[in-house]
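Chapter summary example: a protein plus N-[2-(1H-imidazol-4-yl)ethyl]acetamide.
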Amino acid sequence: MKIRMFLLLATVAILAAACKTNNKSRESVEPYIAPVAVPNFNADSAYAFVQQQVDFGPRVPNTKQHVACGEFLASQLAKYGATVTNQYVELIAFDGTILKARNIIGSYQPENRKRILLFAHWDTRPWSDADPDEKNHHKPVLGANDGASGVGVLLEVARLIQQNAPALGIDIIFFDAEDYGAPRFHKGEHKDEYWCLGSQYWARNPHVANYNARFGILLDMVGGKEATFHKEAYSERYAKDINRKVWDKARALGYGKTFVDARTGGVTDDHWPVNEFARIPSIDIVPHDDVYSFGNFWHTVNDTMDNIDRTTLKAVGQTVLAVIYEEK
Ligand code: AHN
Ligand code: ZN
């Protein structure tokens, strides 16, 4: 008798519990939409990718360090499952020097017509012409921030894409010969066209015919200690809604101190030819403002790992990941 009573009570209790959960689920009328899983950006991994590039030494076009680092970058993209295309091209510098340049392109889901373009330059500047010490002006920049940081963040993005693909196809381009613009001590012409030679070439000769992408994001100098990013003027002109999308996402993720919701002047950078010639609305995440400028170590011999901060890499990398994974 006691056992029967127990079983009865137990049944009532189970039914009551089931009823309760049932009622609960009936209360929520909205259909359940699973949130997209945005991977966790590993800043230690990105930092290691920056270090690995710096370990080659300066990556100045026409040097063996440049060739070796190019091989490393292409093999990394292949290792993380991208379809790799190389554009080998001879580009003419401001002084007539022929640069043996290499744009390195890693594509995910190349058949997908919905695409996002992510890019950074991988070459480093042959002259530290902004160094306070004139004796350093003819020494190359090591480019931990100016070059390696953007590429390092994008290699980490590539690593994560291989583990868990976003809905859209992604192209990661490492542009060459961005930083070969005439040095300050050069007496001749100083045209903007002398910068961004690799991206100018690609924008006029994309790696696939009729290439298109929904939008583009350039990462330039995204590893500096205490760097802040403002909405750069050309990005605002060509791709205002993309700037808003990225800055709003950064703030939502808690990176509002790094991504300042204010404008700054135009920067001649790889997003200019991508906007102007390839007609892909593209923004530049670049630390440019009246206080920080490009950082006091920019184009000096102090652009070393000492000035690279994982916190900045994380803010940029996590924001870019959220933007690309949440795109439908
Ligand atoms: C100029 O100084 C004209 N443009 C900055 C683009 C740049 C140089 N990014 C990295 N190094
Ligand atoms: Zn530079």
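Key point: Residues 37-325 form a domain with the Aminopeptidase fold (CATH 3.40.630.10).
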